[in-house]
Amino acid sequence: MSNGIQIHGLTKAYERGGQRLVVLDELELEIAPGERAALMGPSGSGKSTLLNLIGGLDRADAGQLVVAGERVDQLDGAELAAWRAETIGFVFQGFNLIPVLTALENVMLPLLLTPLSRKLRREHALRALDLVGLTDRKSHRPSELSGGQEQRVAIARAIVTDPQVILADEPTGDLDRASADAVLALLVKLNEELHKTVLMVTHDPLAAESARRIVHMDKGQLAREEARS
Ligand code: ADP
Ligand code: MG
Predict the structure, then answer these.
(1) Alpha-carbon distance 29 to 47, whole Å?
(2) Best exposed site among 78, 81, 91, 184 by fewest CB in 10 Å?
(3) Looking at ligand 1, which residue's alpha carbon is closest to its atom 7?
């Protein structure tokens, strides 16, 4: 099955104080299967809104959205949640780990939605932690990890269900350069070795350079794009 993204006429507006704020304005975008793309643009241009729609965290008002072969705009609430759980891995700027759980327990969490036994959930989570190089931190809680390590745990959690598409919203925004580079290297590895489609929002030019394609948004539309070698 194709793990690309096809977006046609995607529109999203918010009501605020009686005003209608159009955040995505008949957006057109195609992300090829296995692509590694960066999405840039001014604050408020609709980048997070777009990522949340692609990942099924929010719903569009109009337009077509096909992700990994599924017409996401046509799924109802329960279908959308089930589809998201098996198709999408999300990585956020603030890591969003559960503070009272260990690294391993955090990574096991998405597998609670699957029929896997506890033993298999643990095995899958250990494999994901190994992939991000944090096997030796599996019993640490988030407060006992550096920011870079927290984000790598969050990446392990995002990939533990083996999703086809990884969506990352400013994944290096809270990290020092060295930690940011380690996170970017992991996203490249997930793309090149595991063939995940990766779409990353960033305003860090160095982060964007790790992508093979850079798409610029402005005021809810595509402004321009750069193909990279
Ligand atoms: P970006 O990620 O590019 O900075 P966002 O997609 O977060 O931009 O937001 C785009 C615009 O939509 C902003 O003006 C923001 O204030 C507005 N917005 C985002 N989410 C909501 C919401 N839930 N309710 C109302 N307005 C929102
Ligand atoms: Mg944002």
Answers:
(1) 12
(2) 78
(3) 48
Residue 103 CA to residue 83 CA, distance in Å, equals 25
- Please check whether residue 131 is in contact with residue 162, taking contact to mean a CB–CB distance below 8 angstroms: no
63-67, 110-114, 145-149, 156-160: least confident range: 110-114
Starting from the edge strand earliest in sequence, which strands make up the sheet with 197-201, in order? 88-92, 165-169, 197-201, 36-40, 213-218, 221-227
Question: DSSP E strands: which ranges in the chain?
Answer: 5-16, 19-31, 36-40, 62-67, 70-71, 88-92, 165-169, 197-201, 213-218, 221-227
What pTM value is reported for the model? Answer: 0.95
pLDDT of residue 229: 64
The ligand placed nearest to the CA atom of residue 173 is 2
- Residue 38 Cα to ligand 1 midpoint, Å, equals 19
What is the percent of the chain with per-residue pLDDT over 90, rounded to a whole number?
92
User: Which helix (H) or strand (E) element contains residue 78?
Assistant: helix 77-87
Ligand 1 test: best mutation among 12, 49, 61, most atoms within 8 Å of CB? 49
Q: Which residues pair with 92 in a beta bridge?
A: 169
Near ion ligand 2, which residues have CB within 5 Å? Answer: 48
Domains in the chain (CATH in brackets) are 32-59+75-227 (3.40.50.300)
Strand partners, 29: 7
